[in-house]
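Hello forum,

I keep getting stuck at the same step: I have a sequence, I want structure tokens, and every attempt I make locally crashes halfway through. Rather than fight my setup again tonight, could one of you with a working pipeline run this one for me? It's a single chain of 741 residues.
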Amino acid sequence: MTDSRLLAQTVAATLGMRLPPRRTPLEGLVAAIGSREMLVVLDNCESLATGCAELCNAVGLGCPATTILATSRVPLGASREMVWSVPPLELPAPDAVLVEHVQHSPAAQLLVERIRAHHVQFRLTAQTAPAVAEICRRLDGLPLALELAAARVPQMGVNEVARRIDDRLRLLTLGRGAAPARHQTLRATLEFDQELLNDDERTLLWRLAVFVGGFDLAAAEAVGSGERLASDRVVDVLGALVTRALVLTRHVDGDVRYRQLETVREFALDQLRAVSEEAAARERHATFYWALARQQPRIHQLGPEAAATLARLDVEQHNLRAALRWFIDRRDVERALELALILAPWWAGRGYLGEGRATIAELLAMPAAAAPSSERAGLLVWSALLANFSGDWLKVRPLAEEALDVARAVGDSVHVAGALHQLAWNSLGHGDRARAGALFQEAADTSHTIGNVELEITSRVFLALLLLGSGQTAQATHEVQTALDLSRQYALAHEMGRIQLVLGLLALDRGDLAAARRRLEAAVQRLQSGANRFWEAAALTALGRVTADLGDARAARQALAAALQVGQSLGGHWPLLRSWLEACAVMASAAHQPTRALRLAAAASKLVPRPGAQPVVIQGLSAVWLAQVRMAAGAHAEASWNDGCDLPADDAIAEALKDNSAEPTPANEQETHSLTRREGDVVRLVARGHTNREIAERMSITEGTARVYVERAMAKLGVHSRAQLVVWALGRGLGATDGAG
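Reply #2:
Ran it on my machine without issues. Output:
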């Protein structure tokens, strides 16, 4: 129907009613319905929205017992209208590949049902489930898109459809005349939606396509405005797109995040290119996020705000990456260098080591970035740090030395201190303790001169570790006490985590295991989810070692499982792996497993001569301990040691985890089957280090719902912190990346 004047009489005819004479069709329909109780369904109202609204108003006023259910791509604007936006179907859990997890998703159920309508032999199996899950995710759970994808399966196979799904606008065509034209291709459906928009709405829809991973209102106003659309119009136009479900919303702590479904975004981006506006929109986008990044406090100058800054960068990470890539591709070196320098602590703190190193290397290789500058010096310092964290020890020294030369040439004392610290750290790792001590001292002195208290504390903490490792406990105590005094003087409570770690190691060195445990537990609590997770991994590893020495197997197992999870999240070769394996060996010995203890100790010892090994902050296994374990192993000692020497690092980790997970679990820890499927998926994501916000985005739920799932899981399992939940999950293999979430 295309003529709204025929709407009332068509409804009456469908209901089998005769309209009374001498009245307009709408008046007659209201009179005919009268007080009867009925449900009237109006489908596809978008093309006659005004006429449908008039009909709804009249029937609503004159027929109080009648309810109208209308479907439309746009709100009708009727006086008593209650709008319900139909969301996409729920997707399979992130990374789900197993049949038992994929099959519970409504999107997957619809896709499988529609595939079988075309290909009756199709079954969801271990071979087809990953492709089904990928298609559902890539198509945002949109029913029509899933229907169109299903129609392609008999011809191409589900795996091939999944491989080609990125080209969805061209791939997804129905090719049969029974369906309306606008439902025969995905592109036609989106074009039909676009035809319902006015010029402002189309313009904004296209411009919003340059965002990646969502945006807020300020970003939409900055990027969406321009020629043909004033900034003060954006909020209303954006609201119209939201009501039409072309832009989705998510409420987070009183704020709203917007996003386009990827299917809509791809179509809108094509339209933006067609009108030659993509470059202008991307320039506004990059400029906005460059300015946003500059407003964030620099992490090396932060106190407690470090976590908040990292969280803000987490939210906008995809847009920030896109902005940086735009500057690099456009050879806008000045802004690229500045933005990369802001992102460098985020790369380090979140474990994106490879990404950070590759991006910085690409930037520094650009001819326009070759001249000495503070930005170049800073990026060289961060590149050295990222190489340190990655275990690429041989690259650290040349990067740090160049950083030192550049920083001195431009008079940048901040990065002079940073370069000295990286050189000291690397020298310690290479066994040059004298040079390391001198460099740490120089870094501390330089930091003190320029007022960089945090770097001074860090340098003194490392100097204390160096002195402790050399047996100079009095001097080590002096350095850590100086760091403690600075932390208290400047109210840098966040620095107490590293200081407590060193104090715990000092207690361990003098044999006061109870004091060491108290210090290390305090360190873990302060360092959890901090800006630099290396220290959290170190504290957890040390705590595992101490609790193993104390014979508390359960606490040791929990600490070491959490240490491994945090350490591996750093990417690359985990710097503390040797200490971790040694702690596992101590735990095995305490559990009366001397042969296993020797295998793990041998695997750890093999890591010692590795060139450039990281400074080990936890004391190694003593000769007395090794002799006692060898004696306990008896005739099997030599073979066990040799077996351990042949173990690759990954196999040694698996050996430790396998034996640990085989130990009895306390009865108050309930098994996985007590969790619902969704709670289990959330636990898997928590075990991989995802925040509630990231879980919400991956599972297409709200952040509040994610938080509820986490809290329910913790309550069911009898754990009291997120760290304990991680330990519980890892102990059952629920953090593995080949599982369902």
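The longest strand covers residues 38-42. If your local run keeps crashing, start a new thread with the error log.
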